Amino acid sequence: MLKFYFHPSPNPLKVALLLEELGDPFELVAVDIFKGEQHAPDYLKINPNGKVPAIVMDDGLAVFDSNAILLHLAEVHGRFLPTTDTPRAQLLSWLFFIATGFSPFSGQAVHFLNATPEPIPYARNRYLREIERHYRVLNNRLADSQYLVGNEYTIADMAFWGWANFSPLIFGDAGLTDYPHVRRLYEEISGRPAAAGAHALKERLTLKADFDDETRRALFPQNEPLA
Q1: Among 26, 136, 170, 215, which is 20 to 30 Å from 126 by CA?
Q2: What is the pLDDT of residues 103-123, one digit of tens each?
Q3: CA-closest candidate to residue 147, choices 101, 193, 212, 82
């Protein structure tokens, strides 16, 4: 049975959504990143980058990075990939836009707006303005397209959904109000049973919730020399 190494944070939620959509059984393995379990030697053998998520397939193949997992599982199952004349390159373009731009800039915006010990105005402005630009790119695309890849729901939409869940940490109470086409897709995906199932996974786990000094050291060990 596939093993899914999970914490209820944005990137694992992408994979959780796909696994719930696929409907195949999997073993849920908690990785408490607030305690630093992602740095444990046994886990680093699965994901040398020390991040979540990761999966281990039935044959022992380990795959890490959320977008790589999405693409691998979609190809293995032959689902949630373009099935019409839409070029595969269009899927790859939007998937990698999410992977290399939208996701990391969302993460940096959340970090500098919420997690730094003291406000850093330049960093806050830099990452907020850039993620606003990414949301405008998505909003413009979705003004003319039901999904990111034409009229088909694909792993590119799932990749987007993972971080869109955390948009209130960037935009506050306004949420996705300024991006109506993005909000439309986000709400559509969130209404799917698989999305409810993905969110429900955290209820099966007991995880640390306090964002204290131990958590900061676990999440941002590279910052320790600055202390």
Answers
A1: 215
A2: 999 999 999 999 888 999 999
A3: 82
Across 84-195, the runs of DSSP E, i.e. the strands, are none
How far apart CA 182 and CA 191 sit, in angstroms, is 14
Distance CA 171, CA 164 (A): 11
2-6 and 54-56 beta bridge pairing: antiparallel
Got the DSSP string for 105-133? Answer: HHHHHHHHHHTSSS--HHHHHHHHHHHHH
Question: What's the chain's Rg over C-alpha atoms?
Answer: 18
- pTM for this prediction: 0.95
**Residue with structure tokens 């991006």?**
179
d(CA 212, CA 164): 25
Angle between helices 88-97 and 66-77 in degrees, nearest 10: 160
Integer Cα distance of 187 and 137 in angstroms: 18
Domains and CATH numbers, the chain: 2-79+196-226 (3.40.30.10), 88-190 (1.20.1050.10)
